[in-house]
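Sequence and structure are kept together here, with a separate record for every protein. An example record follows, reproduced without changes.
>
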Amino acid sequence: MTIRTIVASAALAALVAAPASATILHVDFTIHPGNWVQAIGAGSPFGLSSDPGISGSLEVDTTDGSFAIYGFQELSAINYVTGTRTWTLADIDLWNSGVRLQNGLVGVFDIGFGDLANGPFDYFLWDALDQPTAYSAAVIGDQISTIVCNACITVSGDVWTPGAVPEPATWALMLAGFGLAGAALRRRRPSPA
């Protein structure tokens, strides 16, 4: 077996074993009660309790090539209700929203709805790329009151997590490659001088 054959076999195995990249990434998020603080005004925005639990989901189409500001991928769908307010893609502030990918998965999402200066707004961030551990925060406000929370968002779905353990297929491919390289080196016969 020649080195060329080994390299070609390893390349073919890598192509066959590589997972297909997702075209639509789906992330479910939950903003948990327990960490909310009144920042402005009295009461709670949008008829929420003073310590709300809120959940929703977002989707990103990774094949359309559309990018929001600063290289963040644009959202393709959102399902999110804050008390009496249902937020849609039309409400998203593109200057404060987007998703950044890491290894084909969502590593950061940063979403702003409404107008932070002049009207009702909702803003939240989840970041697993730029922090040692995933960082999250949320701000919800209307023209009467604003509440904020830190370290209050959990996510599931197509998300990247730091220090993930390789999948079994990756380990198998790596061990097979080492085995083939070792076998090729062992079978090499010294050429007469």
About this structure: The chain has one domain: 21-162. DSSP finds two helices and eleven strands in the chain. The chain has a mean pLDDT of 74.
